[in-house]
Write a structure and sequence with these properties.
Structural class: alpha/beta
CATH architecture of the largest domain: Alpha-Beta Barrel
Number of domains: 2
Helix content: 25-40%
Largest sheet: 9 strands, mixed
Radius of gyration: 23 Å
CATH topology of the largest domain: TIM Barrel
Bound molecules: ligand LLP
């Protein structure tokens, strides 16, 4: 599952001790395993090898350029959601015809930049957006390929904040409107080629059933549209594969492929996938140092130097992340404790009520596990905290792939004005 393992009482990432990284680079620091990233990508690739899909890594999960470049070099395309992500993809020279662009709120400037870049598809999320892309493509003298992101009204059975395909969600276009687009509106959209249906039903989905439900709806819709003159050549089933944080038993890449491939048999559709978390989630940890041990009348707190600004998932989704001391303690009397950051909010915690060695003390380093996806990419400067450093491990070696922010960088865009 990943390459973070205990060896001789020390937690290693591949062949590098995490304690050594924290001592050298400082903390908080995100550490990623190159081998694990590639292993997860290759698992998906292998599972789907019979139909050779385009796997567009969903950069929002972890947009560090080095991570994206590893995946690009392995043959991945990229799923982007903003002008900033397009800029990142261009910075590492991702082939433009391997870039797909989703988002409910693409601005005219973002649309123009993406058309000029020559991206493969916009995943279009409203009629208004469709019209705007058509108008901008016309003004640029281009014909742009687009996918309609269909909202299939399927419950993904995941956290409500990351369920995206119910009628109540802001994402995608319902089936009825999609038909109207093809049967009525399409004639007037001369600068668009609508050739893909996109479905993304949510994230951290553990069971294959909702994927199957959504895909079946999508395929049925494509068959109906193509029978009536449309020319849909691609289907994009988004991301959403769940991973193990705690006791989950998510479908494997192979379970997923085995469920998907038969539904697409003989349909003559090129498949696109947009995995994020599946590739990087378990390929990263957040290392943090205990600043103080604080025992109160009701509980123990380990106050650490990482906080909700570094990893917001526990605060935001009450998400579980395992916590492991990077050097195992000899006497293992355990004691329950909350692991909390220095931020001025009671919601600032990384873990609650965890059984950890009672002898943990100041300066000990803890690894917060499964922090590779939606960790650094959701981090902020709240409380004027500098964003953490990022490190990539490859075998016996490691390198810094993002320097820790400096105080200077924290304020460099601010102006002490005259007003
Ligand atoms: N495609 C689209 C259109 C998406 O919106 C997303 C994620 C993905 C692909 C990748 O999904 P994944 O394979 O990573 O599940 N911050 C949340 C997750 C938000 C997911 C947003 N969309 C978390 O930390 O759990």
């Amino acid at each position: 599952m990943h390459d973070f393992k205990m060896k001789n009482n020390r937690l290693f990432c591949e062949q590098v001790s995490l304690d050594a990284i924290a001592r050298k680079v400082g903390s908080p620091v995100f550490v990623y395993s190159k081998k694990t990233i590639l292993d997860h990508f290759n698992k998906l690739k292998k599972a789907f090898k019979d139909i050779d899909p385009l796997i567009c890594y969903s950069m929002k999960a972890n947009s560090n350029l080095s991570i994206c470049k590893i995946l690009k070099d392995a043959g991945a395309g990229i799923d982007i959601v903003s002008g900033g992500e397009l800029y990142r993809a261009q910075a590492i020279k991702v082939q433009a015809d391997k870039i797909v662009y989703a988002s409910v709120g693409k601005t005219p400037e973002e649309i123009e930049a993406a058309i000029k870049a020559g991206i493969l598809f916009f995943n279009v999320e409203s009629v208004a957006e469709l019209k705007l892309i058509n108008a901008i493509a016309r003004s640029l003298g281009e014909k742009q390929k687009v996918a309609i992101r269909v909202n299939p009204d399927v419950a993904a059975k995941t956290h409500k904040y990351i369920t995206t395909a119910k009628k109540q969600n802001k994402f995608g276009i319902d089936v009825k409107t999609t038909k109207e687009i093809f049967f009525k509106l399409r004639k007037s959209l001369n600068n668009l080629e609508i050739c893909c249906i996109h479905l993304h039903i949510g994230s951290q989905i553990e069971h294959v059933t909702p994927f199957i439900q959504a895909l079946k709806k999508g395929v049925k819709l494509i068959e109906l549209l193509n029978k009536n003159g449309a020319n849909i050549t691609h289907i994009n089933i988004g991301g959403g594969l769940g991973i193990i944080y705690d006791k989950e038993k998510p479908q494997t890449a192979s379970d997923y492929a085995k469920a998907i491939i038969p539904i697409l048999a003989d349909k003559n559709l090129k498949l696109i996938l947009e995995p994020g978390r599946f590739i990087v989630g378990n390929a990263g940890v957040l290392l943090t140092k205990i600043i103080y041990v604080k025992d109160t009348s009701v509980k123990r707190f380990y106050i650490v130097d990482a906080a909700m600004n570094d990893l917001i998932r526990p605060s935001f989704y009450e998400a579980f992340h395992g916590v492991i001391p990077v050097i195992a303690k000899k006497k293992i009397k355990l004691k329950k404790a909350d692991i909390v950051g220095p931020i001025c909010e009671s919601g600032d915690f990384l873990a609650k009520q965890r059984l950890l060695p009672a002898s943990l003390s100041q300066d000990d380093i803890l690894a917060v596990m499964s922090a590779g996806a939606y960790g650094f990419s959701m981090s902020s400067n709240y409380n004027s905290r500098r964003r953490a450093a990022e490190v990539l491990v490859d075998g016996k070696t490691f390198e810094i792939i993002r320097k820790r922010e400096t105080y200077g960088e924290l304020i460099k865009n601010e102006i002490t004005g005259k007003l």
